Queue: 2 jobs
Job 1
Amino acid sequence: MLALGIEGTAHTAGVGIVDETCRVLANVYDMVRPEKGGIHPREAANHHAEVVVPLIRKAADLAGIDLADLDLVAFSQGPGLGPCLRTVATAARALALTLDRPIVGVNHCVAHLEIGRGVTAAKDPVLLYVSGGNTQVIAFARGRYRVFGETLDIGVGNMLDKFARECGLSFPGGPILEKLARGGTALQALPYSVKGMDVAFSGMLTAALALRKHGASLEDLAFSIQEVAFAMLTEVTERAMAHLENAEVLLGGGVARNQRLQSMVGRMAADRGATMFVPPGDLCIDNGAMIAWTGLQMFRGGVRMTIPETVVDQRYRTDEVPVTWR
Ligand code: AMP
Ligand code: MG
């Protein structure tokens, strides 16, 4: 069975093709990079509209298949930016109708977890999902993926990107700050904001920007933001693992590529006799392969959608999805 997945919840348009063993035959993407300022939903949607067809062709070429070989079309149904979601949903509907193949809308957050289970040895992990727009600790319980903790304001990636932008660095800021952080030495005092299993980052952003104004170096601030933010994330992840008596932790989302985050979570896992799993970087960030793979499993789990049921949902919650495939 071959599934094609289209991702487009936010800044990245991606197309992936996978088979029923989670072999990734193609995974291509194109990210909108605003010259200045943040991501504008309409501009990002226009970008996706321009690149989605070339990406579909490129994915098919890389996979060495004809589009007629596909058995299923999947797309990111939410959560995300409305104009972006509608653009990729339209592309997916057009493709499915043209090929006369079934279509399945996929929850983006669930897809981050499923691709990790698909390409690593993790079986029933606690997922620390850390991306631009989302920050959640997710695990499977009683037929659903449940959110055990999440950000109360902005995603951790968004915090990194905003700090970087205000300091004149380019987008995405996370990888740039990771490099700068290696040169940092003095830990600056930043708010450590954990409430139960939830976290908050906007106070840290404000505090870091104020310290920058007062002359703290970019290296020290990048270092301090990473140390404090990632310690918060590690703490809530550990709390979920302890609560669930779960010995597997999986990382997902673009921030999961960060080596310092990986080493902190890895250390926590090792200390509790647990194992950490990290998918390859291209499958951590927003990507079409994770949508294809999740759609394929949903389809095998009996999920069928009519075109009217493929309406997008900007606030599609992780725990709204009945998990019929495991
Ligand atoms: P996603 O939304 O999952 O595609 O991930 C994009 C986010 O990941 C952006 O906020 C990036 O700044 C962030 N990101 C990517 N690579 C890194 C890295 N090495 N360290 C920290 N953040 C990163
Ligand atoms: Mg994501």
Job 2
Amino acid sequence: MTHATARAHPNIALVKYWGKRDAAVNLPATGSLSMTLDIFPTTTTVTVDPALDRDVLVLGGAAQDGVPRERVERFLDIVRAATGSGHHARVETENTVPSAAGLASSASGFAALAGAAASAYGWTLDLPGLSRLARRGSGSASRSVIPGFAVWHAGHDDASSFAEAVSAPDLAMVVAMVDRREKPVSSREAMRRSVLTSPFYPAWITSTAQSLESALSACADGDVDRLGRITETNALRMHAVIQACDPPLRYLTPTSVAIFDRVAQLRDEGIAAFATADAGPNVVVLCRPDDAAAVDAAISGLAETVTARPGPGLQVLEEAAR
Ligand code: DP6
């Protein structure tokens, strides 16, 4: 039996990934830009065990069945196909991020799994290779492999679609945990529904490609205000796409909206703060590190908050011995 352990952190997109051009290998319709956080890591150990007749997933000490286990099995199938292994594995994961609450547990989860599985099965990959592998598990996981700020190039095939580091101004994110419960509709399903039914989806694709270009130039210029404005606009556009789906779908709650309003008020008061939200009710506020305490004070009456800074990329804590 060989085993390896890896750790990864969630990331929050400033320019979102929302829609696939190829679901089979998880190619996104557009590129995206994110910050990997220094909080809520996921730690995963993969033990390749020839005695197992199927893959086992243990999440926070509890054995999983159904979709989560099947997703892990499909992912390990990719690793087995690449390494010529016929062996199954035991995957033990500890999440410190509230699962499925829109705080990107699938991003940290599949990034950590990619690192641990590649090592346990003896597949030596460079950083773009690990990002491509993580992408197959969950698109946003491609960015959690990268420390700090990452751009995920949409690419045109499996080889060209991966994330890499990009330099950006020094920033913080104040995370407002509006609701920790599991969301009723997964982002994967909501994305599919958006592509198929939202009349705004074509406009989302063209505007997001432009937003990514502008955001990358704002990063290069160190322009926090421009980057922040693009971030909030892009998030609200994504939620507009989602809110135009059939059957109807809405992730933002009255509390989420109240936080967006409070953040706009902060801007009127002279603080450069900008809100974003993934496929869930939680809101994340982008600001300069020096303003994080003021942002936190302004919104902590509305939801539980925690401040994050740019965090590390994928860390293999224990390489498989062979
Ligand atoms: C709203 O990466 O979870 O967080 O590729 O289907 O696993 P799959 O989707 P996932 O979607 C993330 C969507 C988002 C935006 C983002 O992180 O860019």
